[in-house]
Design a protein that fits this description.
Length: 306
Amino acid sequence: MSKEIKIGTRESQLALWQANKVKDLLEAQGYTAVLVPIKSEGDIDLVTPLYEIGVQGIFTKSLDIALLNGKIDIAVHSLKDVPTQLPTGIIQGAVLERGPVKDLLVYKTDTTFLEQPDYIANIATSSVRRKAQWLHKFPLHHLHNLRGNVNTRLQKLANENWDGAIFAAAGLERINVRPATSVELDWMLPAPAQGAVVSVCRENDDYCRQALEALNDIPTALCTRIERDFLRALMGGCTTPISAHATIKDGKVHFNGELCSLNGDKLLKTAAISPLETAAEIGNNAAKTILQNGGDEIVAQIKNAR
């Protein structure tokens, strides 16, 4: 028996793009679907820095509640926003094929200030990870909090006397608002699961589980799981300066991970290559390597700072 699948989504332009992508894919499989916009706590409070709110699940909690209450059948998220431990009764149904993973610097005039060692630039981002990585490379720069959806943040950058702001390439490119005044930050390792879209459903909803199964991109699901294993093993959430990226090439998984101190003065890196058959534990093993080489001290400092 078929039914209309109610897709829960945040109301931002990017979130609606992601939800419509899932809707289109479901309809291509013969299912009927409709969007149900729901406001999240992270969309309501655009002033408080994410690390002060307690960001773990801030963009997903409202949708989780709606899902468990039966108001919606599935929810669509940026996977990097999803806590590594899903609420009881909710499971990951599908990870779509990944989009761009890199971060971008959107600059006001030019990027010559990046080559001036004594220049004190003003850079905006709400991400603890991006702040830490930026300060590691540019310790003299001043970092400013920047909240809101993609369009709101671009407008805020235009209004403020800042040199630039950091965005995820996927967010800007998916809704066609990437400015010409932007440059890819090749040196900045992305957040775990950055660029990936996930759809979750209730564990006991066999109809939606089956519907989402056809949408799941296996390589993306594997790589993002490895990255999120690394995040979880380092006690991390999206309020921690943890970076990870896994790719598949020639039958092997290539993994890079980083843990940075909050002020950027310490940065630990790890890398690994494994055949696909034995790749499942790369993330966990990489986290152990980080912890054994000084990462435990950085993790303790992060915990104490909360």
